[in-house]
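Input record (one chain):
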Amino acid sequence: MRRRLVLLLLLGGLCALTGWMTSLGRVGFFMMAPPAKLLEALKEHLQIVLSAELLAVVAGIPLGLALSRRSFRRGAPILSAVTSVGQTVPTLALVGVFSILMGLGWRSAVVALGVYTLLPIVRNTYAGLVSVDPRVKDAARGMGMSAWQILWRVEMPLAAPLIMAGIRTSTVLNVGSAAVAGMIGAGGLGEIIMTGVSLRLVEMVLQGAAPTAALAILLDRLLEGVAATATPRGLRLALRRGNS
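The corresponding structure, as predicted from the sequence alone:
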């Protein structure tokens, strides 16, 4: 209850700050982004984040799954190192490289952000699958389940909390990193932030940064609910007992 109250107060403060900055209309010689433009930028930002996250999930979960299989264990360090490259390179540099390779705009921003936020999903998928108790898999095998049935009906449900934690981390990273997309013409709230930085206008920077932070909190909270739904009931009860 206390956590929810803190989140609501934080979201309310960020929304109030956004409304205040927007209501200024003009600061000195410069016009603030009008409400219609701010909403359009928020929509573009959300589209970039969801597209990049979908790309990261579609690529990250199969990679983590492959790393957890015995036949791929020898290549696991190499594949893990390759997926780690995205986060070792600064976001600005990575977006810049993809903008050169693929051209300016939305597509290069989505691919760059998808690569940048790949690691948490791969790492957590791998960790979740290898942490499944071998005795549970042996019991499933003794019941006559095939390898695919064990994977989808036993391993994946038990690994779901860790996988969803990786997706949540990746999504929050995506929301913040997507602000850089404004530098290559992909739109979003980053365009407002970058304009404010170039004009040295703190109010405009806050006008773009506040809704970006609010979006990150909302998506994280939403994915927390999805994670609770995806986790098997017995495992949820065990986790609650462990936390209490």
